[in-house]
Amino acid sequence: RQSTVVITGTSSGVGLQAAKALAQTGQWQVVMACRNLSKAEEAAQSVGIRQGSYTIIHLDLASLDSVRQFVKDFRATGRSLDALVCNAAIYMPLIKEPLWSPDGYELSVATNHLGHFLLCNLMLEDLKKSSASEPRLVILGTVTHNPNELGGKIPPRPDLGDLKGFEAGFKAPYSMIDGKKFEPVKAYKDSKVCNVLTMRELHRRYHESTGITFSSLYPGCVATTALFRDHYPLFQKLFPIFQKYITGGFVSEEEAGKRVAEVVADPAYNQSGMYWSWGNRQKKNGKSFVQKVSNEASDEDKAERLWELSAKLVGLA
Ligand code: NDP
Which string of b and e fits 202-219 if b means at least 16 CB within 10 Å? Predict the structure, then answer.
């Protein structure tokens, strides 16, 4: 039987290559969950994903209505869901003022965290019905979530504080989870801390009762992706060179996609609640290992509180 995986944000970068890696095994039907259907179709064709091995369904993670509609549309296909990959993200380092989602939330946290939070909660029901021996739910993390790691030391550092912004309803004038002044780079990093906390809380709440494997990973520094498209042009030019020749952290989009595909499909990644990494410096044939997440991302009380507040913000509680 062919398994089905839903991957968000496969119109470029890591998600596109993960879709390719899984589709070409022949064992996976890939549902590409994207906000721009024609871009996604062109992207799939441009990297040679075989016709018939993928379906594209509209999903705009910034909009909670769109997330709900996506789940309905997926269910209408009649497929069972065997794996879900939360990959899509935006990063807008240069904006001075926050942008707002249709629901009135700061756009990067709305897209990277809240949209995925709702999607995970709704699709948990589908994963529970999977007949696969071990259904999986994978959320992309990043080294910048962790100030204890080299790549995470550069300020501004992520800090959800006491979740004051979320507690206050996270609508203008609140644009940051900690309720403080808007800082776009920190907003991205905060959203990625939320991704890791969500994975850990999913594991705590549901692993034992459902058998679903929940995991997260740092795919390496994929310095060429469109994630950096809103950065200074000079940064976009120099960052890959810096990562290739100075830090040694550079990973190709194809390699990063393969890593995601492994965490989705390889029996070696069957431990739930784990955060996988291949390290900061890439070595030839480097092996993955379970990495400790940041202090904040391992805070169980914060995970629970974040879960409760996020559930309110997306209309689940
Ligand atoms: P890309 O910008 O190449 O890909 C992001 C994808 O997300 C695109 O398909 C984009 O679609 C999609 N997306 C953005 N906003 C939305 C939305 N509102 N609804 C639906 N889809 C959306 O970035 P990467 O491939 O680099 O990033 C993928 C993941 O990897 C992210 O979670 C990122 O945090 C993580 N990561 C990346 C690293 C890197 O060095 N690049 C390092 C560590 C982690 P569209 O084409 O329409 O914009």
Answer: bbbebbeebebbbbbbbb
